[in-house]
Design a protein that fits this description.
about 450 residues, alpha+beta, BirA Bifunctional Protein, domain 2, Rossmann fold, 3 domains, seven-stranded mixed beta sheet, five-stranded mixed beta sheet, 13 helices, globular, binds glycyl-adenosine-5'-phosphate
């Protein structure tokens, strides 16, 4: 196996492969695109769905203490007033006076946080990351929530926000879930779905977008148990990263300092990954205390306390541990980890070595020739596999070698080749993506054979 460089060229290879093979396309491309928006294509949607479904299994349905919700994306704007998002969900922004680019101040080279400077930042040594000039306006806070109007009247009374996180739906529905499911502490509520942030500087492919997907859970606990629960969820996040197949050496668990932590969090650990563009956040784990439920209780006037069913005198606002996972960042790191190159028969072989459960296509059915004699039974075989809920691609164009390479490049674990001998011996060749080993197996047992191999 060739050692591949993990620098910016890896990112270029991934972006190009994603476009060429139908994983991820630039958004609205025929109209010249829309800056930093991306559309998942036929393979990308399968990959993303597999990741979301595995997450849901691991964090919701395989656990006795979790339930899910799927809430409206646009919530009552009071939700975001209560949480402080309207007042403080902002990034510091500055305009370059030379090229008029609007930049995130904290990302500029040479900038220093300085409360005595105008706008809170000393920019005397800073350089514009676009034009290199050193003339800036005064830094301002820029609220990242996307706004729109609900209904036909576009005035201030109709302003609503596209949710910047999925978390708040779990807090707002805490009472409904508690009453409808009669849960006892500790228990959690999970949700996955779209979130929107008007990022000042989106970029790095799907790493930072203005529209993205989150998988989050809020785990409600007694305050005295927070340390043990925090460790439990950190362990579960590590297990998830193993399930995704992420190499330990590219992961970092960063304890966020008191100064850098969100004001409502008593402890935050960021999971960071060595991307081709540097070490940056992948996921986050926070102890949000009783901040959110407390705020919603105060703003809504509704009681959001938990009453101990065994002791009527005990009534309190539960505390919360929150593991938060970006779906798109999960897709990106999975692609980066899966990418392999090697030289086989003097040719470059690219393969995406996804864990089998994650691969968008599980089996390719390839007749050795396009002739009806082979293509008709091969199509039937493909349908038999589909009927058994195995995702199949049928391909009869070009040489078998080229077809194998195409499947390797999209990460298909197994190719099933139907040849002229298959007509008489009732056997097909199953080829393994990673070892390239081939074995003859009976057509009659193909579903069991593939299901068995996919288990590994
Ligand atoms: N409820 C907590 C929360 O929203 P966050 O760290 O702001 O925390 C959670 O976001 C996760 O969402 C991040 O760890 C990252 O995986 C993902 N994420 C955040 N902003 C993103 C963006 N602009 N584009 C893509 N993913 C993003």
């Amino acid at each position: 196996m060739a050692e591949i460089s993990r620098g910016p060229e890896l990112m270029e290879k991934i972006v190009s492969l994603c476009k060429r093979r139908g994983f991820i396309f630039p958004g609205s491309e025929i109209y010249g695109g829309l800056a930093n928006s991306w559309d998942y294509g036929p393979l990308g949607v399968e990959l993303k769905n597999n990741i979301k479904q595995m997450w849901w299994k691991m964090f919701v349905t395989r656990r006795p203490d979790m339930v899910g919700v799927d809430a409206a994306l646009i919530m009552n704007p009071k939700v975001w007033e209560a949480t402080g998002h309207v007042a403080t969900f902002s990034d510091p922004m500055v305009e370059c006076k030379a090229c008029h680019a609007r930049l995130r101040v904290d990302n500029l080279e040479g900038v220093v946080l300085d409360s005595s400077a105008e706008g809170g930042w000393n920019l005397s040594a800073a350089k514009c990351s676009i034009c290199g000039k050193k003339e800036f306006g005064i830094p301002k806070q820029f609220n990242m929530m996307l706004r729109t109007w609900l209904g036909p009247v576009q005035d201030d009374s109709a302003v609503v926000y596209m949710r910047p996180e999925t978390a708040q739906a779990m807090f707002v529905n805490f009472k409904n879930v508690l009453e409808s499911t009669r849960r006892r502490l500790p228990f959690g509520i999970a949700q996955s779905g779209k979130a929107f942030r008007n990022e000042i500087t989106p970029g790095n492919f799907i790493f930072r977008q203005r529209e993205f997907e989150l998988m989050e859970l809020e785990y409600f606990i007694r305050p005295e148990n927070w340390e043990a629960s925090f460790e439990h969820w950190l362990g579960q996040m590590k297990l998830w990263l193993k399930t995704l197949g992420i190499a330990d050496e590219r992961l970092h668990y960063v304890e966020i300092s008191d100064e850098d932590r969100a004001f409502y969090s008593k402890r935050t650990v960021d999971v960071e990954y060595d991307y081709p563009f540097g070490q940056k956040e992948l996921y986050g784990l926070a102890y949000r205390t009783d901040y959110d439920l407390g705020k919603h209780e105060a703003f809504s006037g509704q009681e959001l306390k938990y009453s101990n069913p065994d002791d009527q005198k005990e009534k309190f606002v539960p505390h919360v541990i929150e593991p938060a996972f970006g779906v798109d960042r999960s897709v990106l790191v999975s692609l980066l980890e899966a990418y392999h190159e090697e030289i086989t028969d003097d040719e470059l072989r690219v393969s995406l070595r996804f864990p089998y459960w994650m691969a968008p296509i599980k089996v390719a059915v390839l007749p050795l020739s396009k002739k009806e004699e082979l293509s008709v039974p091969a199509r039937e075989l493909a349908q038999t596999l589909r009927d058994a809920d195995i995702v199949v691609e049928y391909d009869e164009t070009q040489s078998i070698g080229k077809r194998y390479r195409r499947q390797d490049e999209i990460g298909t674990p197994f190719c099933v080749t139907f040849d002229f001998d298959s007509l008489t011996d009732g056997m097909v060749t199953v080829r393994d993506r990673d070892s390239m080993e081939q074995a003859r197996v009976p057509i009659a047992g193909i579903v069991a054979e593939i299901k068995n191999r996919l288990q590994k």
